[in-house]
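User:
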Amino acid sequence: MNYEKAWKLGDWIPIRDCPGRFVLNGGPTTICVTELLGNGMHIQKFQSDKAKDKVFVVEFDGGGTISYQKSANSWVHTLCDCAGFARKMKQLEPLHTCNDCTNKIGEV
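Assistant: Predicted structure:
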């Protein structure tokens, strides 16, 4: 998986005032992370004091996805380029390393 392949998986719209970040069009969906990206992806799950929902992160070449599980069957998926991914991960304050980004943020 990479940024271009992930872009083709959905209808992504820009998140206002968040350069390099996009949200899956249509609002919350019942599609979970694995259904969106496919099996075999390394998915990191964590809680953050900065997010009220469970956060699921998939990192790949060129960026990653940050998905929020609103309830058992409700998800909001975001796609981020490398800069948007690093910036949002830093805001969420999990410990995580971005493979192809220069910003190191730690490891979950």
